[in-house]
């Protein structure tokens, strides 16, 4: 029995991931990611017959996480191919879509960590890992005596125990592994989420004014970092609507740092129910939030507010009601995200009204040392770098195993 690996796209670039794994009888796809700005037109789709066009030629599509570079093309998968993803992945993707007044465009079956899915003669085992997308799965793909591990996007700097993950993973025949940070220089090292939280607490102790955490709603771990820092600082925690929708979809559990569906939004904090530029279409959902008015929420400066780009326009009203004297604006987004004109204008504006503007960000991706630890742990016979602009970094393993830089129908 052999497993054949074909990296359809996303080996020598960061994102746009589409991976095919097959046997004689079964063909599966892992991730159907979009390139930036792709996927708005069907005609711009990559040519993958049987996946995006024609009769279905695949038995399943598995999705590692909800970032669009891994699932942005899912809505174009032809009818008749089952789609599998974690429930949190779907719930968060649905919340993001509904916020924009859209439907997700696919209806998946749900998978769970540690519960294998059998498709023909292939078994896929989801393994929960830490990434800036909540509920990200690595996949152990197995057929006969062959095993392939797909690392998805992962890191060791989140709140999950990386050693425990390594203990869970067996040795494998091939490792498909991401290398996002490997083009960021040999000294690339990122703080952990816990270090960010501690830094936020220290910073808040020096300020009496309001605090805003400018973040991506999809970054659930950062919402939790903001929440914990607010609690430790004795401040009220406030979310804008999109943050609250995503936190609810993830089932934020504020005690265990694990996210479960059983906790309600009331546990998390106040939600400022604004229409945020009119994009929040489904007003029925707004009623389930313990929402407070902006007037009440911002009447005293002892708050930490999670603010998404989607709320920027509406936020200008707040700055009229609440002085930012001795306030803080934490930048909790990637550098290229804050270079966008609207964001950089907002940051300049906040500086002009007196807010200190520290960075509160860390990468969602593994550094070289963490990738080394994964490789040493699973001892692959073949390494297939993906999601990277510096695959040459893996040349250091060429004496120990095969490194496949252009993976077309490699047979394990
Ligand atoms: Zn990615
Ligand atoms: Zn990702």
Spatial extent as radius of gyration: 22 Å
How big a fraction of the residues is strand? 15-25%
Largest sheet, spatial ordering of strands: 6-5-4-3-2-1-20
Tally of separate domains: 2
- First-last Cα distance: 9 Å
CATH class of the largest domain: Alpha Beta
Q: Write down the CATH topology of the largest domain.
A: Metallo-beta-lactamase, Chain A
Find the CATH superfamily of the largest domain. Answer: Ribonuclease Z/Hydroxyacylglutathione hydrolase-like
Q: Tally the helices.
A: 12
User: What overall form do the CA principal axes indicate?
Assistant: globular
Kindly name the structural category. alpha/beta
Strands, count = 20
This entry's quaternary arrangement is single chain
> Which ranges are low-confidence, i.e. pLDDT below 50, for 5 or more consecutive residues?
254-264, 274-288
Ligands in the model, by name, code or SMILES, are: zinc ion
Would you spell out the secondary-structure blueprint of this structure?
Blueprint: E1 4-9, E2 18-22, E3 27-32, E4 60-62, H1 68-71, E5 83-86, H2 87-99, E6 109-111, E7 117-119, E8 122-128, E9 137-143, E10 146-150, H3 162-168, E11 174-178, H4 193-205, E12 211-215, H5 220-232, E13 236-239, H6 241-250, E14 270-272, H7 283-286, E15 291-292, H8 294-297, E16 303-307, H9 312-321, E17 328-332, H10 335-338, H11 341-352, H12 368-378, E18 382-386, E19 402-403, E20 410-411
Parallel strand pairs: 3-4, 4-5, 5-6, 10-11, 11-18, 12-16, 12-17, 13-14, 13-16, 14-15, 18-19
Antiparallel strand pairs: 1-2, 1-20, 2-3, 7-8, 8-9, 9-10
Helix pairs in contact: 2-6, 4-5
